[in-house]
Design brief:
Blueprint: E1 5-9, H1 13-24, E2 28-32, H2 61-64, H3 81-94, E3 101-102, E4 121-124, E5 131-132, E6 148-151, E7 165-169, H4 173-182, E8 188-192, E9 199-200, H5 210-214, H6 217-225, H7 228-242, E10 262-263, H8 267-272, E11 276-279, E12 282-285, E13 289-292, E14 297-299, E15 302-305, E16 309-310, H9 320-323, H10 325-328, E17 343-345, H11 355-371, H12 379-384, H13 393-403, H14 410-416, H15 418-426, H16 445-450, H17 452-457, H18 476-496
Parallel strand pairs: 1-2, 1-4, 2-3, 4-17, 6-15, 7-8, 7-15, 8-11, 9-10
Antiparallel strand pairs: 5-16, 12-13, 13-14
Helix pairs in contact: 1-11, 11-13, 14-15
Cofactor: FAD
Pfam family, one: FMO-like
Keywords: Endoplasmic reticulum, FAD, Flavoprotein, Membrane, Monooxygenase, NADP, Oxidoreductase, Transmembrane, Transmembrane helix
Length: about 500
């Protein structure tokens, strides 16, 4: 009996994972991709306004890998977009996904198309970064400005900005990246921010990738035990040790974990050398200059709005109950007011962590809902459970994994495979953990988990030293304490149960 037909919109990282999951579940996916290649926002071409030439991932390779296909061990930890594209092509070839993708196929409507298809379910994987947001109305005088103004979406490379005075508006990852890159060719770069930001570092303790050190089950447990203000204070003090955010003009109005992370290991180096100058919010523009909230004025030739994107799905009905993502989407995947759960949004949330693993788990959940193997709660229950908070990576992954019975059982593993259990608890919460059991179980998951530190270290150790020792992210004394803590928690659960 043929499986249900599923439409997948977009062949980016979320769409490719969705195709693979559908095939695993015995469904028949057809992916419609508007362009002539896979990759979505990671695909660089001069003719496409998708990604700038120098962009590098903000999540490390072990954290962003598909759950049954680790990155090659020689790949760098933080990847240039060309390396991510190389990995995606390897993934597509390995799992024979290409034949399920229809390129140069724009979805016009889910009801009425130029070419009609009937599907049992739809996975929308077109992502968040499709409609640039330029709040021009908030900047009086912008229409009188005689220079050039663009959105960061239009930026490709720095050459044509040689000798210009440039102001970048925003403090997200794109704003920081562009300010640093442009400072090499510009006469001066100003980075204007209304709110400030805590600047996270790619390189964390012992030189390890930040997310592999912070996004662990142990740290997730710590956050549940200790008051939030202590977590904020610890993190903010740690970031201020490298450079004082107040002195550097970056001190934000929000606490550490309450906003999306901004990465910029190099930013303080460029501020201290004057190549990037921090400025407050712009109050208005003149024909040739910007006037700021502190009443200072600077001559500028180019304005770059790194002001983010709005979420839009023009091929869907203009239905506010379907598109009201932030307030009503059940676990950021299902619109709760549809008569039947036949529409799922994949990868539309921004967790404090990697997109590929969250999208992959969402796809697995959606596929099983489409098949009728998993049921959604009532509309009333969905609304009561709606999420309006910032999503923490490990918590969200476990939440979705619990829906499909793939969350690893630490208690059982601690009894039968303590080595693996310890790595699950103390090591990075990589996607391989969700292939140890349940639907989609992968025989290589255990090996992938136990060798993940080797894949982190290999591309760093290109000059081998005699008697060199592998860096250990977790001291032995801390491991002992963690084992004792884990035993205590498990004992408490058993007694209480």
């Amino acid at each position: 009996m043929p499986g249900k037909r599923i439409m997948v919109v977009g062949a980016g990282v979320s769409g490719l994972g969705a195709i693979k999951i559908c095939l695993e579940e015995g469904l028949e996916p057809i992916c419609f991709e508007e362009s002539n290649d896979i990759g979505g926002l990671w695909r660089y071409e001069v003719s496409l306004n998708i990604v700038y030439k120098s962009v590098i991932s903000n999540t490390s390779k072990e954290m962003m890998a598909y759950s049954d296909y680790p990155f090659p061990d020689h790949f760098p930890n933080y990847l240039h977009n060309s390396k991510i594209m190389e990995y995606l092509h390897m993934y597509v070839k390995h799992f024979h996904l290409l034949k399920h993708i229809r390129f140069l196929s724009k979805v016009c409507s889910v009801r009425k198309k130029k070419e009609s298809y009937v599907f049992d379910g739809i996975m929308v994987c077109s992502g968040l970064f499709t409609n640039p947001f330029m709040p021009l109305q908030k900047f009086p005088g912008i229409m009188r400005f005689k220079g050039q103004y663009i959105h960061s979406w239009e930026y490709k490379s720095p050459e044509k900005f040689q000798g210009k005075k440039i102001i970048v508006i925003g403090i997200g990852n794109s704003a920081i990246d562009l300010a640093i890159e442009l400072s090499h060719v510009a006469a001066q770069v100003f980075l204007s921010t209304r709110s400030g930001a805590w600047i996270w570092n790619w390189v964390w303790d012992s030189g390890m990738p930040m997310d592999t050190v912070l996004f662990t089950r142990f740290n997730s447990l710590v956050k549940k035990i200790f008051p939030e203000f202590l977590i904020h204070r610890w993190a903010e003090n740690k970031l201020n040790v490298r450079f004082n955010h107040d002195i550097y003009g970056l001190l934000p109005q929000h606490r550490f974990l309450s906003h999306q992370a901004s990465f910029g290991d190099d930013l303080p180096n460029y501020i201290i050398t004057g190549r990037v100058r921090m400025k407050p919010n712009v109050t208005k523009f003149t024909e040739t200059s910007a006037i700021f909230e502190d009443s200072t004025e600077e001559d500028v030739d180019v304005i770059i709005f790194a002001t983010g994107y709005t979420c839009s799905f023009p091929f869907l009905e203009n239905n506010s109950t379907v598109l009201d993502i932030q307030r009503s989407m059940y676990k950021f995947v299902f619109p709760p007011e549809l008569e039947k759960p036949t529409l799922a949004f994949i990868g539309i949330l921004q967790p404090v962590g990697a997109t590929i693993p969250t999208s992959e788990l969402q796809s697995q959940w959606a596929a099983r809902v489409f098949k009728g193997l998993n049921k959604l709660p009532s509309v009333k229950t969905c609304f009561l459970m709606k999420v309006s908070r910032k999503v923490q990576y490990v918590d969200y992954m476990d939440e979705i994994a619990s829906e499909i019975a793939v969350k690893p059982n630490l208690f059982s593993l601690f009894l039968w495979d303590p080595k693996l259990a310890l790595e699950l608890f103390l090591g990075p919460c990589t996607s391989y953990q969700y292939r140890l059991q349940g639907p989609g179980k992968w025989a290589g998951a255990r090996e992938a988990i136990l060798t993940q530190r080797e894949r982190i270290i290999k591309p760093l150790r290109t000059r081998t030293l005699i008697c060199a020792q592998a860096p250990c992210c977790v001291p032995l004394w801390l491991k002992s304490i963690c084992v004792a803590l884990l035993l205590f928690v498990l004992t408490f659960i058993i007694i209480k149960g």
